[in-house]
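S1.2 Input.
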Amino acid sequence: MAHHPHEPHDDRHTPGRGHAPGAEHGDGQVHSHSHSHSHGHDTDTDTDIDWAEMAPHLEAQAELFTPLYERALSWLGREVTEPGLIVDVGSGPGVVSCLFAETFSGARVTAVDGSAPLLERARQRADRLGYGDRFDTLTGELPDVLAELDYPADLLWAGRSLHHLGDQRAALAAFAERLAPGGTLAIMEGGLPTRFLPRDLGFGRPGLEARLDVLQEEWFARMRADLPGCVEETEDWAALLGAAGLKHARTRSFLLDLPAPASDRARAYVAASLSRLRDVFGDSLGSDDRAVLDRLLDPQDEEGVHRRSDVFVLAAHTVHTAVKPVQ
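S1.3 Output.
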């Protein structure tokens, strides 16, 4: 997958460049993060993720979250100047990979993921946008597949993909090993739960999204526990980056603020996210909250997210960076 938006409604642990139940993998980057179990997740207890199935949602989320990513990449660009190779670890369908290609016009970009179908979508996107001549893909299990890179990376980005690897400390060490001297490792982990609706909807019990947060946190814990070789780790990212031999750790959070009234595209994303949460957590919710979600998802209901005037998207994602010392 400290508070982290979790997959279901936060892209942080969903596929998508993102993740699972609600998948905002916001993240966007909504992604597939090459770990060994990517199957179905159609019950409230299943923590496996079918990344290829989630591709359209991951792309839609990442595209909606583009302003947030553009600000994050602009910030990175003040530290990482003229990189030769940028590696997007857990790239999913490549929305953010292509933003790197756009932002750093002189760099080669390699999208790395465990899902070949998602990387094919990334390749098609890069070709469509005119970046195909400096865009590569690499398919395999992380972090081992990084050994197949042709040369070290000047910037290695892992956007909400690290939490899909059982031993995060070991993964960070492997990421650091693939950096060129002076290269930067940037991970997007943590932030705040995404919000779509006012606390009091005018019907049902106030605080629906806060109650969904609790279920997503529990889901995320199960997802982490189910990963092969899972190691519990305090999410002190600066300390973990330091333990990987990196220096000059920095942290900054980036905001996506799409105020009400939401655009049609934002409403579609909100509806898709709430629908996934309803599917995954429906049996864990009280009957009153299930009824509220059903109303919110009814396209004909004036109080639903398709019609009500107070729907918004507000998210905060956190990026942590550190630099490999020059020997």
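S1.4 Remarks. The mean pLDDT is 87.
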